[in-house]
Design brief:
Blueprint (H helix, E strand, L loop, with lengths): L8 E11 L2 E9 L3 H4 L22 H10 L9 E5 L4 E4 L6 E7 L4 E5 L1 H13 L7 E8 L3 H13 L6 H7 L4 H12 L7 E2 L13 E2 H12 L9 H16 L2 H7 L5 H7 L5 H14 L4 H11 L16 E2 L2 E2 L3 H15 L5 H12 L1
Parallel strand pairs: 3-7, 8-9
Antiparallel strand pairs: 1-2, 1-5, 2-7, 3-6, 4-5, 10-11
Helix pairs in contact: 2-3, 5-7, 6-7, 7-11, 11-13, 13-14
Length: 361
């Protein structure tokens, strides 16, 4: 007689499969049970005796908020776990791989992949108890000891690659900053037809000028928004109007649009073809959009006279460091200060002090 018959068990609807000659089970588990039955190694256990990374608690609030704020359309991928006890699989029919997985309630079930999802679920249930009826997929393996569990963790994470910021922006329909970036990239100059949607760097021979993630960041700079803040309709209109208007006074952008200058040559020679130029212009734009229409037009006309060539000594130690463009926030700020001087925008006392500090660093 199986020991399982003498114990209380969890019973999971499951599908049995096989990998590398070993069985595994795909089951569904109610979210309410996740914090109760799944364990992860505590932080005080030495790394050589753990089968997981230390829990990064700073990740939990954001993941929990995602569940709480998107109860009707969230997606959580499967948790992978190892069961350190005897299990039983009850087939629905003889020789069937569909059935019920019986797991003793006192079994140690160790998470191999998904401990942050587990912690986020626990936090989200406190605020939204109704989520307890939802389910998550669980991939169960039979525990074969610490060495095997550590190898499973290494194998599961070895080939995991985060999507590029641009592709993440393209597919994120909850984030208002991503929504605005997509709209501008598809509908407004200078971005329509010249945006790289998948990568966050532009290939040497590409015909694109801007990355979608770069446009998203530039809009945040333009409107003075933090990473967690959204955009209202008026702000979206302000951003669209600013970039359309600025485009008129960027001769090299227009030359590329009219195929009089290749995108590759433009990127090679000019700082206005790169993210640092776009963000510096956005910083300047933050001041410009506060001006009256006539004042704004006057300043924008002066932008057309700026020499954007990398070889221009005005950009040395600002956009350029040791002959190369720098994307550091200090360089973006220093570049914006030079643009403001060239078009006669007033400089605040704090900005001048900050500029001195950066230049003398």
């Amino acid at each position: 007689m199986s020991n399982l018959e003498n114990n209380y068990c969890y019973s999971f609807p499951a599908v049995r499969g096989q990998q590398a000659g070993k069985p595994f089970y795909i089951a569904t588990c109610p979210l309410r049970l996740i914090p109760k039955i799944f364990m992860y190694d505590e932080e005080e256990v030495p790394v050589e005796l753990r089968a997981q990374r230390t829990l990064n608690k700073s990740r939990i609030p954001e993941m929990a908020r995602y569940l709480v704020e998107s109860p009707h359309d969230y997606v959580f991928s499967a948790i992978t776990a190892s069961i350190g006890a005897e299990i039983d699989f009850i087939e629905v029919e003889k020789n069937s791989n569909i059935g019920s997985l019986k797991v003793p309630m006192d079994a140690q079930i160790l998470i191999n992949d998904g401990q942050h999802r587990r912690a986020a679920i626990e936090e989200a249930l406190k605020e939204r108890p109704e989520l307890s009826q939802d389910n998550i997929a669980v991939l169960f393996f039979v525990d074969e000891g610490l060495k095997r569990s550590q190898q499973m963790f290494a194998d599961l994470n070895k080939y995991a690659v985060r999507p590029s910021p641009s592709l993440g922006t393209m597919y994120d329909h909850r984030d208002q900053a991503s929504e605005l970036a997509r709209y501008l990239a598809l509908n407004t100059k200078p971005f329509a037809g010249f945006t790289e949607f998948e990568r966050s760097t532009i290939a040497v021979k590409s015909s694109k000028l801007f990355t979608l993630s770069g446009i998203k960041q530039a809009n945040r700079v333009l409107l003075g928004k933090g990473t967690k803040e959204g955009f209202n309709e008026d702000e979206r209109q302000v951003a669209a109007k600013f970039w359309e208007l600025l485009n008129i006074y960027m001769p090299e952008w227009i030359q590329v649009q009219n195929k009089q200058l290749s995108a590759a040559e433009f990127r090679q020679e000019y700082i206005s073809a790169h993210g640092i130029g776009l963000q510096a212009l956005a910083l300047v734009g933050r001041d410009l959009i506060k001006l009256s229409d006539s004042e704004k037009q006057t300043k924008l006309k002066l932008i057309a006279n700026i020499n954007w060539l990398k070889s221009n000594q005005a950009w040395a130690h600002r956009a350029m460091q040791h002959g190369r463009l720098s994307k550091a926030m200090s360089n973006i700020f220093l570049t914006s200060m030079q643009i403001k001087r060239e078009i006669g925008l007033p400089l605040s006392k704090n900005d001048v002090l900050k500029e001195k500090e950066y230049l003398n660093a």
